[in-house]
Amino acid sequence: MRLVLAAAFAAALAPGLAAAASGKLVIYTSQPNADAQQTVDAFTARHPDVEVEWIRDGTTKIMAKLRAEFEAGAPQPDVLLIADMVTMEGLEAEGRLTAYPEADVSAYDPAIMDPEGHYFSTKLITTGIMYNTAAPMVPTSYADLLKPEAEDRIAMPSPLTSGAATIHMATLTSNPELGWDYYEALADQGANPQGGNGGTYRAVAGGEKLYGFVVDFLPIRNKLEGAPVEFVFPEEGVSAVTEPVAILSTAKNPEAAKAFIDFLLSPEGQQLAADQGYLAAHPAIDPPDGFPPRDAIKLMPFDPAAALADDEKNKLRFVDIFGG
Amino acid sequence: MTAAEAAAARRARPAPRASRLIPGGEGLAFAALLAFVAGLCGAPLLLLLEVGLGDGLAPVAKALESGSVRRALWRSLESGAASALLATGLGTALALAIGLTDVRAKPALVFLVLLPMMIPPHVTAIAWIQALGPGSPVLKPLGLAPELGATHPLYSREGVILLLAVQHSPLVFLAVRAALRALPREMAEAARAAGASGPRVLRRVILPLIAPALIAGFALAFVSALGNFGIPALLGIPARYITLPVLIWQRLASFGPGMLEGVAVLAFLIACVAAAAVAVQGLLARRAKAVLSGPPSAPLDWALGRWRPATEAGVWAVIALTLVLPLGALLGTALVPTYGVDLSVETLTLRHFREIVFGQSVTWRAFGNSVLAAGGASAILAGTALGLGAFLARGGARGRAAGAAAGVADLAYAVPGLVISIAFILAFIRPLPLIGVSLYGTLWIILLAYLAAFLAIALKPVGAAVAQLDPALDDAARVAGAGWGRRLRRVFAPMTAPAAASGAILVFLTAYNEVTVSALLWSSGHETVGTVIFNYEDGGYTTLASAMSAVTVALTALLMLLLDRLGRRLPPGVVPWR
Question: Are B249 and B75 in contact (CB under 8 A)?
Fold first, then answer.
């Protein structure tokens, strides 16, 4: 129902805008299934002549698939819509992305857009702290997780598995107040990085652990359904992955790909993201239910190019501290 | 006629008539089998190796210098061997209890022992984590759940080994049971008549005779554990107990341009371990070989007398632990609004089941695809295994070549499914020569990958049966003038059909719930059951994943019942639980 409304809303607001796109458009995305389906449905409602084929999988598997396709010399997708900017920076450095400098990004924070228009952030998926409501201590800052109550009670996704965790690590360790000392202190607390965000969420919601670093929408959405969890935007700020979208240099249908990017960046596309329970990248879109007002969410500074350059070094240091 | 006389007769008549009528029929079939194995199991992996080791073995030496690689290698060996030992013990005990004695409700028992295999390994792991965790829907109402925040007991080396053993004991069970079926009962009965006690007959007659099956079962469990990803990923990572497949996954997650090389090098290491295991198995199997013959006979049912209740209680306890506990947890999770909510009359909801059964068209599509791909693979592989088995049974150049083909199949099985997935993209993304169509993005590529990945499973029981086969039978038929095709149909196939059938069923069950082989090969419209469940789980929809798993188990049970009906028309020993 929400989907039909969103589509109708989109169609009503922008009649006759960029209706020329047609043909087959192949999208590889790491959005959850239902969200990806809604996004595609809303897009095809606007562009009925485009036939969208999409594949959804975790960023790791999508990238593994794409790497094998590169190796075989036959990459399939036109558009990539994945979790983080660092991966996009890497693809850009290899010349795998086509720039689309004409895209309208005037309303957005330039820090989350590629200056040459190789990729475009579509939402803000922040990583903060979640806790089980049975926990004795309610954390309000990263420093709180170093208290004795949290010892051996902390779950966190591993940067070796999760893109969001990689960016969280790069953000926190480059922050002068926290730095690598904080990660070393976490290891002393018995924190045990494992798997992805889903695993961390499960561990805290199921009570195996009481605190965890996790992406915002998992606890916020599930809390609305009655899960015994709570999400905290820590005082120091949150890190964010921005679910960027990009056109591959090997795209077979660049016109439809551009139309897809225009749609995601339009106020309608951004409203759809908010309706799905995400913080939209567009600053004028209200946060969804369960989120604090936008000005209460503090993003910590993050430099994707530097994070890419330091990626290997950071992960090695991480393995040193936590033993892989 | 003795074997020596038969061999002499063979020398006297080197060219049987029928093979003259169909020139090269046997040679043609043999060449086709070898091409099948080389093209599907060998070529894609070689392509991947080319990516990583195109310039020689230096990257392997470099990888072995890394502490994390050496640790992962050791842990793969350790968890593989320990879990295979446990699985062999458990699977054999169950097979002996059900196959040799007069416990009641045998068909139901076999059915229930096999059912845990239907659940994808990562779902099994999640179900066990839920079942023994602080939020356990099974233990919490009983007041037995561990305290909140306590370190989970399964997050340990022992947890990984235990679950791998539970997951793979049905493999051993089926292999041993097939061997028991093929065992002529005369020997055991003769020993009993001569006054030997049950345990003594077991020790001195039965176990030595089924030794090849025990070794095959152990090897199968070991190689399966070596390639398993779901269990060490979910239980090992939190315990920092990283095995090679998990290390490969972490390399995949590094996304960089050098990723494929790193993956290829690690896959090469796993393949080496598997090759060594296969070589050792071959050596042991030759030593343990016991030649006997006889058609599949009615199963033995020794009267246990006063031991029967205890034995039955033991078997049912194993089933309760390996099936009811995790399935209960799964069901408990599928019935609450969101993961973490306690199950009670107020919170109970059926909406996840409604969503899976009526809301998501992908559910039924995935079942259709998995049944087609797994069913097709098991039928084709049963035939392939019979064909290869016929050559395995004989010495000479062809026997050795067939043995080599079986070795290649073992390697393809031991390499983690994700690696097969990548290798198949490299091999099949381009349009095929001659027909000019690419299989990438169709169900066919998944079927082909199943054929490559699971040939070893189909071959193991047949290989064990062949090892027990008395070559005198084949020789006698040959002397009587039967051609190759006729001997295959009338002598070889009837003797090995139960083994081939249990191999086919193993393939079906393994392929039906696998999640790694199709991980990178599925596409919209061509999803498999495993990938759909994994995607729900991965996207944070734990409750939907649990509901889908529960529906999967129910549908599989239905499918097995259907097979059971069909089984009435099939020769004895083909459907394993009849």
Answer: no
Q: What are phi and psi of A176, to 5 degrees?
A: -60, -30
Separation CA B85–CA B140 (nearest Å): 32
Residues 6+ apart with CB under 8 A from B199: none
Tokens, residue B557: 């049970």
Spell out the residues 6+ positions from residue B87 whose beta carbon is closer than 8 angstroms to its own: B164, B165, B166, B167, B168, B169, B171, B172, B217, B218, B221, B225
Q: Do A68 and B149 touch (CB under 8 A)?
A: no
Q: Indicate the range of B272-286, B382-396, B508-522, B564-578 predicted with least confidence.
A: B564-578
Is residue A192 left, alpha or beta, with left meaning phi > 0 and alpha meaning psi from -120 to 50?
Answer: beta
User: Helix, strand, or coil here: B332?
Assistant: helix
DSSP A196: -
Q: At what angle do helices B443-468 and B493-513 cross, to 10 degrees?
A: 140
Chain A (79-98) residues lying within 8 Å, Cβ to Cβ, of chain B: 87, 90, 94
Per-residue pLDDT tens over the stretch B188-198: 778 878 877 77
B489 CB-near residues (< 8 Å, 6+ apart): none
Chain A residues closer than 8 Å to B540 by CB: 32, 197-198, 201, 218, 221-222
Q: Does residue B1 contact residue B472 with C-beta atoms inside 8 Å?
A: yes
- Contact: B148, A319; criterion CB under 8 Å: no
In a mutational test of the A interface, the residue from B68, B148, B249, B336 whose CB has the highest number of chain A CBs within 10 Å is B148
Q: Report the gap between the CA of A199 and the closest CA in chain B (Å).
A: 8
Give the single-character DSSP code of A112.
G
- With vertex at residue A199, the alpha carbon angle to CA B140 and CA B145, rounded to the nearest 5 degrees, is 15
Q: Do A208 and B133 touch (CB under 8 A)?
A: yes
pLDDT of residue B574: 64
Over the Cα atoms of chain B, what is R_g? 24
Q: Say if residue B49 is exposed, middle or buried (CB neighbours under 10 Å; 0-12, 13-18, 19+).
A: middle
> How far are the Cα atoms of A63, A206, B158, B311, B564 from residue B319, in angstroms, in the given order?
40, 25, 20, 13, 20
ipTM, two decimals: 0.73
Q: Do residue B347 and residue A87 have CB atoms under 8 angstroms apart?
A: no
B134–A202 CB contact, under 8 Å = no
Is the C-alpha dihedral spanning B334, B336, B339, B343 positive or negative? negative
- Name B115's Cβ contacts closer than 8 Å, sequence gap at least 6: B323, B553, B556, B557
**C-alpha dist (Å) from residue A290 to A168, A212, A247, B331:** 22, 18, 33, 29
Q: What is the pLDDT of residues A50-75, one digit of tens each?
A: 999 988 887 878 888 898 899 888 89
Residue B18 has pLDDT above 70, yes or no: no
Say yes or no for a CB contact (<8 Å) between A69 and B425.
yes
User: What is the β-pairing status of strands A154-156 and A211-215?
Assistant: parallel
Cβ A161 vs Cβ B253: under 8 Å: yes
Spatial distance between the Cα atoms of A308 and A305, rounded to a whole number of angstroms: 5
- 3-class secondary structure, B59: helix
Cross-chain CB nearest to B260 (options A71, A218, A225): A71
Between the alpha carbon of residue A180 and those of residues A173, A186, A213, the distances in Å are: 5, 10, 16
Q: Pairing relation of β-strands A50-56 and A23-29?
A: parallel
- d(CA B20, CA B17) in angstroms, rounded, equals 5
pLDDT digits (tens, 9 = 90+) for B271-301: 888 888 878 877 887 776 655 555 555 666 7
**Could you count the other beta carbons within 10 Å of the beta carbon of residue B555?**
18
pLDDT at B345 over 60: yes
- HSE, CB side, 13 Å, CA atoms: give it for residue B150: 13
Residue B24 token pair: 């090269």
